[in-house]
Amino acid sequence: MATRPKLAAVSSAAHESRVPPEERMYLEIYDAIMEHRLPAGTKLTEQALGGIYGMARHNVRKVLTKLAADGLVDLEPNRGAFIASPGEQEAHDMFELRQTLEQLVMQKVATNATAADFAMLRDMIAQEREAYMQGNRPLWIRLSADFHIALAKLSGNALLVEMLRRLVSRTTLLISTAETTGQQPCSFDEHLTVVDALEKKNEQRARKAMAHHLDECSHRMLHRPEKRFDLRAALGKPSE
Q1: Which overall architecture, per CATH, does domain 7-85+225-234 show?
Q2: Has this prediction a pTM greater than 0.85?
């Protein structure tokens, strides 16, 4: 499963001519999904994507298969590829599993993380806060997901990282791009509480803070309204 480049390098890297066409397509679709420019349930046809990127259908199929491995696309026999749209039961199951896995992350990070690691995590939280305060909700959502992956990497367990990468990506799709009236989803504050506890080597407090955070995340899941959109525009391509 591919490792996603750091966010700061994604935009430029995805457009550099030296990036292979398949990788560029993967990066651009990945970004569009994670930033909710492509809504859950959207059908991705090989013909349409092949036309946008000037690629043969069998190459498009490879990219869709890669996205499916990341949990972002569902491949349905005789129907095609769709942006993953987890149902209520799957959502419950995913957050239940995340609770278990991220508790293990808390244990390992509280023991092994260094001062440099905590500085990196605090910098990520600052970026989350800045994106939110600027009203850039898609970027805030993306950075919020990246924070959990960064924590998992500090565990030193590669398999745990890959399992959480898929779960975090897929649960991110459950968040609506629409704000909820009266609700301020300030996840960066919850992330900061977790990091404060970890840096003080207070594993019990960190576990409790992460459990609370994930519980709040599950309650913030909103129904995604259906809306019309243009595939080319969502992928940042000019109209024909």
Answers
A1: Orthogonal Bundle (1.10)
A2: no
Tell me 38's DSSP state.
Answer: S
The pLDDT score that the predictor gives to residue 58 is 93
Q: How crowded is the C-beta side of 63, counted as CA atoms within 13 Å?
A: 24
Query: How sure is the predictor about 142, in pLDDT bands with cuts at 50, 70 and 90?
Result: confident
Contact 187, 131 (CB under 8 A): no
- Residue 98 pLDDT grade (very low, low, confident, very high; cuts 50, 70, 90): very high
Name the residue type at position 84.
Answer: A
Structure tokens given for 108? 């390992």
CA nearest to 138, candidates 227, 5, 34: 34
Domain borders along the chain are: 7-85+225-234, 88-219
